[in-house]
Amino acid sequence: MNEVATAENIQENDVYIFVKIGNSSYAFPALNVLEIIKLVELEYPEKMPSYIAGILDYKGKIINIIDLRTILKIDVKEYDVNTHILIIQSKESIYGIISDEITDIKKIDSAIVSSPSYSLIGSFTKGIYLNNGESIAVINLESLENWIRTSNTNETSFNEKAARLLPRDIRSKEILHQRKLQLLEKTQNIPYKNIQNKDAYISFIIGNSTYCLEIAYVGGFYKYSETKIIKIPCTPNFVAGLISIKGDYLTVIDLKRYFDNEPSKITDKSTIIVIQSQDFKVGFIADEISANLNIQAGDLFPNKNEVIEYVKDNKLYLVLNVAEILNNEKIYVG
């Protein structure tokens, strides 16, 4: 199955996209599916209905990404990099639907789509299609969209949703972020270099504090336990040593020592964040990588400090002024 399918390739009204959501199979009318993409990095307003998995900038429009599992009362599991999004075009709007797997695209003879034994009033199902002994619910998009317009579901906070559903390992976060940038380049014809990481920050934990820095400076993430740090004598105590990344040796800074003069407590979540500028690369030790967030440049009061305080949703973030830190010659080992 190709990663992307478009309605241009599917012209008949009775062609359907078959998907897995949880342990059940569903069919969506193909002419309403603009394309199928793999999961990308999603954005999150402060609060949103529980059935919305996030929002996405798609062709210059902010669209909702819907998780039908919440609506259909299906057990929810975390997304992963193989999760898909169906981009749906209705008469009134564009939105996305999360699916665990795309299984097929084929024509259904409407004559063999049977009504279920239960009442369809208030249901999102047009009927049931039997395929090799498997029951597949054919989705009625009009009923689904009507429910979305009229529903009054409870809201959920960003932190609850992000912690519960998003992949949290470092590699997956990198993949989702790169896919998001590539989607923006493809759908809006914006050069990749102009959209890369704009206003986007990665947050991470050091001790009891939450720090963040511009993703534009991030050159990669590496598990501390999987790197070999070479100790260097006669250097400041916050210099943990040198590591070799793709043939380059770079200084590793223990930020806990750098700011608080206390050593980091190394755990299995400890991560080295590679920071790169035009001239230098260094590594910062973090206790744990946290969520991405957007910070508008105007929200940060510019100064020469190495750390700038920023408050969002009553939470204090310590924003690293990477340019100032990289100007400190003591962090480099010659």
Write the layout of secondary structure elements.
Elements: E1 15-21, E2 24-29, E3 33-38, E4 47-49, E5 52-58, E6 61-66, H1 68-71, E7 84-89, E8 94-99, E9 101-107, E10 113-114, E11 125-131, E12 134-139, H2 141-150, E13 155-157, H3 158-165, H4 170-188, H5 192-195, E14 200-206, E15 209-214, E16 218-223, E17 239-245, E18 248-254, H6 255-260, E19 271-276, E20 281-286, E21 288-294, E22 307-312, E23 315-320, H7 322-326
Parallel strand pairs: 2-12, 6-8, 15-23, 18-20
Antiparallel strand pairs: 1-2, 1-9, 3-7, 4-13, 5-6, 7-8, 10-11, 11-12, 14-15, 14-21, 16-19, 17-18, 19-20, 22-23
- Helix residue percentage: 10-25%
How many beta-strand segments? 23
What is the strand content? Answer: 35-45%
Average pLDDT taken over every residue? 79
What's the number of helices? Answer: 7
Q: State the order of secondary-structure elements, H for helix, E for strand.
A: EEEEEEHEEEEEEHEHHHEEEEEHEEEEEH
Distance between the termini: 51 Å
Cα Rg: 24 Å
Question: Which stretches of 5+ consecutive residues score pLDDT under 50?
Answer: 1-12, 190-197
Strands across the major sheet, in which order?
Answer: 9-1-2-12-11-10
Largest sheet features: 6 strands, mixed
Overall geometry: elongated
Structural class by sheet pairing and helices: alpha+beta
